[in-house]
Amino acid sequence: MIPHRVQDWDDAYAQAKNIPDGARWPAAWAEPAQSYRTEWSRSGRMLLDVPYGDRPRNRFDLFLPCTEAIGLVLFVHGGYWLELDKGLFSYLARGPLAHDLAVAIPSYTLCPEARIRDITREIAAAIENAAARVSGPLFLSGHSAGGHLVTRMISSTSPLSEGTRSRIRNTLSISGVHDLRPLTRTAMNTELRLSEAESVSESPALLEPQPGSRVSCWVGASERAEFLRQSDLLANIWTGVGAQTSIYHEPDRHHFNIVDGLADPTHPMVQALLDGFVPSRPMRRPQERGPVEGRAREGNPCS
């Protein structure tokens, strides 16, 4: 038996410095995201900066499939509630769109301008607005801080309306932070402003899931030990209080490249998100293309 105790909480939650060539993110997401927006704009099936609230960052981008949408995926970005925005993750819409699911990607007010409890309410407003535009089942997904925010939506104190909650088919938390208490011990809490009380009330792992909740926790096997623990934690605790859960450590993936699975319609991550949902139409097979970082292809992607 080897005792374990975290001595440096800042290092435990640090990403870029602990990943080879980690400094290339988040810039590495910008080019494929812009290329995908250029590509999908030719379809005429994209709405950018749809407002869902009064604050400047209360906007989401909506990608509609080439045929009538049979449901909606909503992806929430990470960045420790302190940075990043929706525009860096447009390319992740590719996977769900191939299954005729619409994809909404919101931004939200960042800390310290907002507190995490405020961001929770903003994401609920984004989901309500997007869900009013697209009928059918809802699938929630989020990365890192976004994983926290989507699991908050299916916890006992969710700010979502009952009608919207009832449409949620599955939730996928990618490298999510589900217990916020450790973050009160980090330097970033100067900007997060988490009190002990808020770190408890906003932690999905310390709340019960909504009845009938289904959540998949997906994490890179090469991530920091705290992120492996955070994913295992939610899956284990929520299994014991009635939720349907699954946990997967994806080999050879770290905190930044773990999200790329959503861009591949055939990737197991997309299958985990859909979690048994059988579309009424065959999956639209994407045309042959280069790697994620490749240039946008010519022509209408829906032709």
Description:
This protein has 303 residues and is of the alpha/beta class. The chain has one domain (17-274): 3-Layer(aba) Sandwich (Rossmann fold). The protein contains 10 helices and 8 strands. It has helices spanning 9-12, 27-41, 94-97, 116-133, 145-152, 162-165, 189-192, 196-201, 225-239, 268-274; strands at residues 46-51, 59-63, 72-76, 102-106, 138-143, 168-174, 214-220, 244-250. The chain has an 8-stranded mixed sheet with strand order 1-2-4-3-5-6-7-8, sandwiched between helices. Helix 3 links the parallel strand 3 and strand 4. The termini are far apart.
Quick recap:
The protein has helices at 9-12, 27-41, 94-97, 116-133, 145-152, 162-165, 189-192, 196-201, 225-239, 268-274, and strands spanning 46-51, 59-63, 72-76, 102-106, 138-143, 168-174, 214-220, 244-250.
